[in-house]
Amino acid sequence: MSGKIEIERIFQIYSSKMTKKTKVGLIQLKISKNKDLNINKAINKIKEAAKKGAKIICLPELFLNEYFCKIENHSSFKLAETIPGKTTKIFCNLARKLKIVLIISLFEKKIPGIYYNSCVTINEKGVIVSKYRKMHIPDDPGYYEKFYFTPGDLGFKSFKTNYGKIGTLICWDQWFP
After folding, report:
1. Is 30 helix (H, G, I), strand (E, B) or coil?
2. Nearest of 105, 45, 101 to residue 81 by alpha carbon
């Protein structure tokens, strides 16, 4: 049996059990060097997606800053933040206000010397219900992520929300089932 047929069969089985549809918003942003501007752009796009009926909204990987992993630069570690922290508080309040599920990606500082490329899922009550840390870290010209990120230690999980079951991963992880 070919992979294509098997995938179609799995989708048909899954879709036959679905009882409702949920609109998902995937946000794209032109990221600047200004973190506050990036947050404001993200908030505006999230509000726009929610007005169009999106109940699950996902922001781009590391949306707070321009992609800093193009070079190895120790000063970029100052961009990292704790989870929960200032940024998650902003987006928890927004998710609660709009009654949506948000998936946001952050440069996480766990402790000095331990940093992750992480994403959190915030439910419609404004509560962080899941945290995922990127497990497969590339190290190629222009993608010096191993300089910045420790491989994730939380594993792959799925969890229920009011709008559907979600499992998160980040970028390169998709190639490692």
Report:
1. coil
2. 105
pLDDT of residue 141: 93
Distance CA 69, CA 85 (A): 22
Return all residues near 40 (Cβ < 8 A) that are at least 6 apart.
Answer: none
Active site residue 134: yes
Q: Is residue 171 annotated as part of the catalytic site, yes or no? A: yes
| Rounded Cα–Cα distance for residues 79 and 155 (Å) | 24
Candidates 47, 61, 66, 110; catalytic one: 61
Marked catalytic residue, from 66, 81, 146, 171: 171
| Catalytic residue, candidates 69, 124, 134, 145 | 134
pLDDT digits (tens, 9 = 90+) for 145-172: 999 999 999 999 999 999 989 999 999 9
Cα separations (Å) of 41 from 63, 64, 143? 10, 10, 25
Q: Which of 80, 88, 62, 33 is nearest to 143 (CA)?
A: 62
- Please indicate whether residue 8 is annotated as part of the active site: no
Report the alpha-carbon angle 19-4-54, nearest 5: 35
Quick one: pLDDT band at residue 27, thresholds 50, 70, 90? very high
